[in-house]
Amino acid sequence: MSASYKFQGWLGLDKDSVKGKMEWKEYEPKTWTEDDVDIKITHCGICGSDLHTLRSGWGPTLYPCCVGHEIVGTAVKVGKNVKHFKVGDRVGVGAQSSSCLDCEECAAGMEHYCSKGNVGTYNGKYPDGSKSYGGYADYCRAPAHFAVKIPDGISSAEAAPMMCGGVTVWSPLVKNGAGPGKRIGIVGVGGLGHFGLLWAKALGCDEVVAISRTYSKKEDAMKMGATKFIATEEKGWNKTNSRSLDLIISTVSSPKMPIAQYFQLLRTNGQFIQVGAPEDAIPSFNAFALIMKGVKFGGSAIGSPADIAEMLAFAAKHKVHPFIQERPLKDANQAVIDMDNGNARYRYVLVNEKHAAEEKA
Ligand code: NAP
Ligand code: ZN
């Protein structure tokens, strides 16, 4: 039975697409299997990774490419093998849409670190050779293992940016002990960083410190739950605040970061986790910055479907509300330009207005 809908969305055709030149076109989704779901998209967040990919910043992008991996909508076709949701349910897909489900990592519930068949929700290729296409679109087809049911307590617009931005900071916070007794620093008050502040506050951390380049986001950061704000434009910020934090999550998307000074903020045995993914190498630093305080320097990628489900349940229970700005899907090109200019406060969410209206009706 052929689907009664078309797969069409905003396609980046070359590097210039990031400058507001995506084109609305039809494309071929992955080959259907009974493990898949077709989602009628109502909302999709704009993640910093969408921009890196549109401009081929991390290496050559597989154009045509439809970005968007903070997808929420209604399941309209569900494969026979899928047991965890049904047609009509509200589901979301984050930055990963497939893995081998067999390797050591997948077996341990770390599908996002799959060592054999990790496929991104866009700009990826499934084992059968078909391409993955993301959420700046009307519909998305993906393996249902990577689609998570959205709890009733969260609106679709608010759930969308949690699918990638939210879980990317949720996971390293929770896995590294964020909670009562801990002093947390979040570097970069952007889409990911603002979630870092919201989660750290809701997790009951003693101190939640926002570390930003300027003071312009201070008022908002305090509303998100920051107990303190450090602006790195202020002379001596690293000395004034040295040895004050147990765990720092850095969401900085540019290689131009004062990393050695960030380390100064850590207490003995502190941890620094980089989640921001700059296009160029991050600055070098002296090994003694780590050695002399027993500091651990690490990284973290998104989260597993189970991590996403856990985060959504927490957000519903603790009534965590992201700071979002809704933009009509038809204006996706302008929204991408605005995101690139650093204007998002703090996550743009594209709204497929026709589908969103039908869902409400
Ligand atoms: P975003 O909303 O643009 O936020 C990035 C923040 O980085 C900015 O708000 C800014 O914060 C800070 N920043 C930018 N340039 C800087 C500079 N030169 N020096 C210091 N800070 C700077 O982007 P996002 O969606 O949060 O994504 C952030 C990064 O995470 C991107 O690289 C994205 O690809 C990556 N990412 C990684 C994963 C993962 O799995 N690890 C998942 C999703 C996204 P201030 O204005 O407060 O200084
Ligand atoms: Zn993302």
UniProtKB/TrEMBL annotation:
Superkingdom: Eukaryota
Domain Enoyl reductase (ER): 20-350
InterPro entries associated with the record: ADH-like_C, ADH-like_N, ADH_Zn_CS, CAD-like, ER, GroES-like_sf, NAD(P)-bd_dom_sf
UniProt xrefs under PROSITE patterns: ADH_ZINC
Record's catalysed reaction(s): a primary alcohol + NADP(+) = an aldehyde + NADPH + H(+)
Pfam families: ADH_N (PF08240), ADH_zinc_N (PF00107)
A single GO molecular function term of this UniProt record: alcohol dehydrogenase (NADP+) activity
UniProt KW keywords: Metal-binding, NADP, Oxidoreductase, Phosphoprotein, Zinc
CDD domains, per the entry: CAD1 (cd05283)
Signal peptide per UniProt: none
EC numbers, comma separated: 1.1.1.2
An example Gene Ontology biological process: alcohol metabolic process
Cofactor(s) demanded: Zn(2+)
The protein's assembly and partners: Homodimer.
Family statement: Belongs to the zinc-containing alcohol dehydrogenase family.
Name this polypeptide is given: alcohol dehydrogenase (NADP(+))
Organismal lineage: Eukaryota, Fungi, Dikarya, Ascomycota, Pezizomycotina
